[in-house]
């Protein structure tokens, strides 16, 4: 429990670091197996830090709406008036599920005659994903902590051209030194967005 609490506190710290280093959009992903407990803990933390938190970021979340607590609606209402940094909290989210539900929506539109099968392209499909309503749905950099070198079913469509950084530190230990290390690694990359090397 202490480790989870430290992890939530680390989210608040990371919001501060993102503001400090000019990061405009920050996305935090919580594994599905930890969602039930962490949502309660995260709600408690946000309630205690709401005013400070909302001065620094607006809240954008990616989750199944029937499981969202009242705090997310409260945060949404306040975040609509905040045009500063954005924090996306991905709770109870799965990349595969996101793609499947997008395909299901498109299949219904085809069935209803709204669109034709040949109309479906990357843009059309992207509009049905859980991130379609966010201003920046495609992350520039993914930081994976704990030494794991996988994306764990997170934003599988949206990460197509994202730069990946794998950090050996565990999430509760991820601090400013590790954050700067990831940013410097990103700055050294030659981003090609799917293109070949010159």
Report what the structure shows.
This protein is an alpha/beta fold. Helices cover 43% and strands 12% of the residues. The strands form 2 sheets. Strands 1-3-2 form a 3-stranded parallel sheet. Helix 1 (2-20) runs parallel beside helix 2 and helix 2 packs parallel to helix 3. The protein is globular, with a radius of gyration of 18 Å.
Question: Judging by the overall fold, what is the CATH architecture?
Answer: 3-Layer(aba) Sandwich
Strand content: 5-15%
Strand order of the largest sheet: 1-3-2
Number of individual domains: 1
What is the fourth-level CATH superfamily? Answer: Decaprenyl diphosphate synthase-like
Using only C-alpha atoms, the radius of gyration works out to 18 Å
Poorly predicted runs are 54-62, 64-69
CATH topology: Undecaprenyl pyrophosphate synthetase
The biggest beta sheet is recorded as: 3 strands, parallel
Task: Report, as a whole number of angstroms, the end-to-end distance.
Answer: 50 Å
Q: Provide the CATH top-level class.
A: Alpha Beta
Helix content bin: 40-55%
Report the mean per-residue pLDDT as an integer: 77
Order of helices and strands: HEHEHEHHEEH
| Class per helix and strand makeup | alpha/beta
How would you sum up the global shape?
globular
Please count the beta strands (DSSP E, at least 2 residues each): 5
Number of helices, counting only DSSP H or I runs of 4 residues or more: 6
């Amino acid at each position: 429990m202490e480790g989870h609490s430290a992890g939530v506190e680390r989210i608040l710290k990371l919001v501060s670091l993102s503001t400090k280093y000019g990061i405009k959009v920050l996305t935090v992903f919580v594994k599905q197996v930890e969602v039930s407990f962490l949502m309660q803990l995260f709600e408690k933390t946000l309630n205690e830090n709401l005013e400070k938190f909302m001065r620094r970021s607006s809240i954008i979340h990616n989750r199944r709406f029937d499981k969202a607590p009242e705090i997310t609606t409260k945060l949404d209402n306040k975040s609509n008036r905040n045009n500063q940094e954005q924090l996306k909290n991905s709770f109870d989210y799965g990349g595969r599920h996101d793609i499947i539900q997008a395909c299901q929506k498109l299949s219904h539109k085809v069935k209803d005659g709204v669109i034709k099968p040949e109309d479906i392209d990357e843009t059309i499909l992207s509009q049905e994903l859980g991130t379609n309503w966010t201003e920046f749905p495609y992350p520039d950099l993914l930081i994976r902590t704990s030494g794991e070198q996988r994306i764990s079913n997170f934003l599988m469509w949206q990460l197509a051209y994202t730069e990946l950084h794998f950090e050996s530190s565990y999430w509760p230990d991820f601090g400013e030194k590790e954050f700067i290390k990831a940013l410097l690694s990103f700055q050294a990359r030659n981003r090609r967005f799917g293109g070949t090397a010159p």
